[in-house]
Write a structure and sequence with these properties.
Largest sheet of chain B: none
Structural class of chain A: alpha+beta
Largest interface: A-B, 41 and 48 residues
Radius of gyration of chain B: 17 Å
Radius of gyration of chain A: 25 Å
Distance between the termini of chain B: 14 Å
Shape of chain A: elongated
Oligomer: heterodimer
Number of strands of chain B: 0
Largest sheet of chain A: 6 strands, antiparallel, barrel
CATH superfamily of the largest domain in chain A: Rod shape-determining protein MreC, domain 1
Strand content of chain A: 15-25%
Number of domains of chain A: 2
CATH architecture of the largest domain in chain A: Beta Barrel
Distance between the termini of chain A: 52 Å
Order of helices and strands of chain B: HHHHHH
Strand order of the largest sheet of chain A: 1-2-5-4-3-12
Chain lengths: ~290, ~180
């Protein structure tokens, strides 16, 4: 070790903080210059931590489940009554849906309709929030030999939640439709008008760019369109809801606040997702 | 840190066990900070969980920079900041610069604050945490070239200020006992 005088050592110790502050500015520049490097560092970190979080998720989920169970015991009577009424209503809807489905099949048969190709999907557990304070995203734990690629569509049991933006060896990051950077081409279901769903980092993304002469109706269902080949058509996204100052927003159909299991569909869409860098090996896909 | 002790006095022979003990005590603050940071990212499913990471990190850096700066030197702060940036999906450097600035402020205020009680330290931290959250928000906007809503910034500051007393109790106990190299 180099021997330094006390004065020199003190001067060095005092210099560390300013030097590191300059270094942090340098790091900002580096982050701006090579964003791919930063993304890889993040995904590598997530890959390392995900097994721990995945192991933690089961006991934590059990505790949460127990707490919910206790809360549910309290208002079981009202819940039962509400469910009975809802069941009644749903039964009526079911008969309508079955009739419509049968009619649809008949019509398609008489039209010689080319059936949509069956899509493959995998299901993954949400292990962590991956958005930080200023973004909305979640991290999925996927096996080491997964076949997930950037740009695939993530859906929960009720509707669209977002798109895969980063893929690591054991993890995948889903950018939610509520994120500030999220843009989803959508269609208003009754008027068949196209629009764009724009995330705001809030709970409800906003609806923009619908055609002139059409007003989105309160409560109207909104689905994805196949425009730009980024999304498959007719995935449920949510319903239109007007704010107090008259801006149409979308109440997402998916339960974005408490995501646990997510299905990832490979529709083979190539529209918006950027291509993977050539030097990044994708495990298991040859 | 545990290199050459040049203070006068008689002390036990620096055996391997003793040196390990001192090293463990010196690295306690940084280790606990990093563990707490990782813990905030666990799947708790608490609403607003994302704000926990910057808030907890700010509390830890402020406390240990005030009470044991030798165990929280600038290089460690730099490392913790980079980890916050990566874990918290902030633009690289935003939290690093903020935490280094917090550390610098704590060092500058150390002498005057050490004579006051906890209420003063907490009050000053309220100001520091608000300024730090504001700086992080401004840097994030600057580096992502986007206007961001200010609500998360306020939430981070409020969360940091309200978590500080909760973290201070175990930290202060550790500061006197298991993190104290003089008791090795």
């Amino acid at each position: 070790m180099i021997r330094l005088s006390i004065q020199a050592r003190q001067a060095l110790a005092r210099l560390t903080l300013p030097v590191l502050i300059v270094a942090s500015f340098g790091m900002m520049l580096l982050g701006k210059a090579d964003s791919l490097l930063v993304e890889r560092a993040r995904i590598a970190l997530a890959d390392g931590l995900t097994p721990i979080y995945a192991a933690l998720a089961t006991p934590l989920g059990a505790v949460r489940g127990e707490l919910q169970e206790i809360a549910a015991l309290w208002d079981m009577r009202e819940e039962n009554a509400r469910l009975r009424a809802e069941n009644e209503k749903l039964r009526r809807w079911q008969s309508i849906a079955l009739a419509l489905d049968a009619e649809n099949q008949r019509l398609k048969a008489s039209l010689h309709w080319i059936p949509d190709p069956a899509v493959s999907f995998v299901t993954a557990r949400v292990v962590a929030d991956a958005g930080g304070v200023y973004a909305r995203a979640v991290l999925l734990a996927v096996g080491p030999n997964h076949l997930i690629r950037k740009g695939e569509i993530a859906v929960d049991e009720r509707g669209l939640i977002g798109r895969i933006t980063d893929v690591g060896d054991r993890t995948a990051r889903v950018l939610l439709i509520t994120d500030l950077n999220s843009r989803v081409p959508v269609m208003l279901e009754t008027s068949r008008a196209h629009a764009i769903l724009v995330g705001t980092n809030g709970d409800r993304p906003r609806l923009l760019y619908w055609p002139q002469g059409i007003t989105p109706q309160e409560g109207e269902r909104v689905v994805t369109t196949a425009e730009a080949n980024a999304f498959p058509p007719n995935l449920p996204v949510g319903t239109v809801h007007y704010t107090a100052n008259g801006t149409p927003e979308i109440e997402p159909a998916a339960m974005l606040q408490k995501l646990e299991l997510v299905r990832i569909f490979d529709y083979g869409g190539t529209g918006v997702a950027p291509l993977e860098p050539p030097d990044r090996p994708t495990p298991g896909r040859h | 840190m545990a290199a050459v002790d040049q203070r006068p006095g008689i002390r036990p022979r620096p055996t391997l066990g003793r040196r390990l003990d001192i090293a463990a005590r010196c690295s306690f603050p940084a280790t606990v900070t990093i563990l707490l940071m990782l813990l905030t990212q666990a799947p708790w499913n608490i609403p607003g969980q994302a704000a926990l990471l910057p808030a907890v990190t700010l509390c830890c850096v402020w406390f240990w920079s005030l009470f044991r700066p030798a165990a929280m030197p600038p290089p460690i702060i730099f490392l913790i900041g980079a980890l916050t940036d990566l874990l918290g999906y902030l633009p690289l450097g935003a939290a690093t610069l903020t935490l280094l600035a917090t550390h610098g402020l704590a060092l500058a205020m150390r002498r005057s604050l050490s004579q006051r009680g906890f209420a003063w330290i907490w009050l000053v931290f309220a100001g520091v945490a608000s300024a730090a959250a504001l700086l992080m928000w401004l840097l994030t906007m600057l580096l992502t070239v986007r206007l961001l809503p200010p609500a998360p910034l306020a939430f981070v500051a409020v969360l940091a200020v309200s978590l500080f007393p909760l973290l201070t109790v175990p930290f202060a106990a550790a500061h006197r006992t298991i993190a104290n190299p003089d008791r090795a």
